[in-house]
Design brief:
Layout (H helix, E strand, L loop, with lengths): L1 E4 L5 H14 L10 H10 L6 E7 L2 E11 L8 E9 L8 H15 L5 E2 L7 H10 L15
Parallel strand pairs: 4-5
Antiparallel strand pairs: 1-2, 2-3, 3-4
Helix pairs in contact: 1-2
């Protein structure tokens, strides 16, 4: 297994993992991402809309972690927002998620970030337990809001 930053050549497989995540998280009906959007937004645009770290096993992507930087925080230093973490079903239980999260932690330190932030669905008990096992804590200081446009 190889943990590395995603490259443009990964766009199609990255999109497949994103689609599988949409199925897992029950929002496939509103999933509008295409391989071309992944290619343009993540690899051709400067700066990119997102960054990604992938786990590669035998030449195929087994997992992905998508993130972006929050450049302005009250601490005067950036933070990272983890948007997506997904491991293909037949690769789960092999510590791939932990390795991807450790790589993200390294990326945060490299960029002088203060924190890594993310959300997790309250019904996703395995995900919640996974994050707690890493030492993450639930932040109950804030409520998440969204405003559909």
């Amino acid at each position: 297994m190889k943990i590395r930053k995603a490259e443009e050549k990964d766009a199609e497989q990255l999109w497949e993992l994103m689609k599988d995540l949409a199925i897992f998280e029950r929002y496939l009906d509103s999933f509008a991402i295409t391989p071309e959007i992944v290619r343009e937004s993540g690899f051709r645009k400067s700066p990119p809309d997102f960054h990604s770290i992938v786990a590669e096993v035998d030449g195929a992507l087994a997992g992905m972690l998508v993130y972006y930087f929050l450049p302005y925080t009250a601490q005067g230093r950036p933070a990272i927002y983890l948007k997506e973490l997904f491991i293909a079903k037949h690769h789960r239980g092999k510590s791939i998620g932990e390795k991807l999260m450790r790589a993200l932690n390294d990326e945060a330190r490299k960029h002088g970030c203060t924190t890594i932030k993310w959300t997790v669905a309250p019904w996703n008990e395995p995900g919640i337990n996974f994050y707690k096992k890493l030492g993450a804590r639930e932040n109950t200081d804030w409520l998440n809001f969204e405003w559909s446009i």
